[in-house]
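Hi, here's the filled form for the chain we discussed.

Project: internal
Contact: R.S.
Residues: 355
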Amino acid sequence: MRTVGAAIVTMGLFLYAACSDQGDAPKGAPGAPSPKEQVAPPKAPAAQGPSVAHAPSDLPPPVGARPPKLIRVDLEAVEMEGQLADGTTYPYMTYDGHVPGPFIRVRVDDTVELHLKNRPTSQLTHSIDLHAVTGPGGGSILTQVPPGQEKVVTFKALKPGLFVYHCATAMVAEHIAGGMYGLILVEPHNGLAPVDHEFYVMQGELYTRQPFGEYGRQEFSRSKLLDEAPEYLVFNGAVGALTTQHPLQAKVGETVRIFFGVGGPNAVSSFHIIGEHFDRVYELASLTSPPLTTVQTTLVPPGGATVVELKLEVAGRYLLVDHALSRMEKGLLGFLQVEGPANPEVFHEGGVPAH
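And the returned structure, exactly as it came back:
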């Protein structure tokens, strides 16, 4: 049984074309769907599973200015049947049951003792390669963990920055595409400047045998992975993760910081928020270089990350996208909902009032 995949994708496209609260495309813009083209929501879901979507507001508080110390991190590799979209499930591989895995936050010169367990019900060995690690395999050589076992690796966080971590057990790309990726932030000595909100967002791909939007249990396709032809591209693990489940929320006048990474394993992201600008971009997640300013779209490679900051000036719903916009049709969409009073000096419908 075929559905329209995610009604949320159609809704996102409609909002993009008709958005009176964003300004990127006026009503009646070329390409806006007509009423006949808008599709009714799908019927009753055919398959249900637990949510794997990591809430973007679920991350530890800032480390701030403190001396280095020993930090223990506990992770568990969990294989599970999770909700990919309405009526659709997928056999995910995860850290702690969510995609992305937990946001790890330390400071430079901290010593990190990482414990990786692999749930006894797992079918596969799993591991972890942290790009923040200085040492062979990023820790993966020492953390090949069979089902039901645990291994420990200890490392010193020598370099500040925002780094990807992922499973590095063969076939590595399959484990990453299954959802085994996340971010580790190594804050500089004096921490980061305060902001009103911080969010954790990652982009990934899923390679399924069945076409995008088909109900039921989706199966992994190795041939599509090797051809780099994903059926789904998503933020935070699933279609609707950052729209119907966990939209980002803030208020006019507030400053937002987004820790953004690409698990991949293959596609480069052109990260963009429709109707907004990034006031500061820490390109390639370098926290030791001055940020770029007033950026519209920033490129993030697979296995890479960025930190973006913006001040919110106009209320409304903003769309988080990869500006390779056909990917929105495969599930890649998020919402930033900004509440507050209107700001007609900056944005309003119609012409300039006569004086």
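Let me know if anything looks off before we file it.
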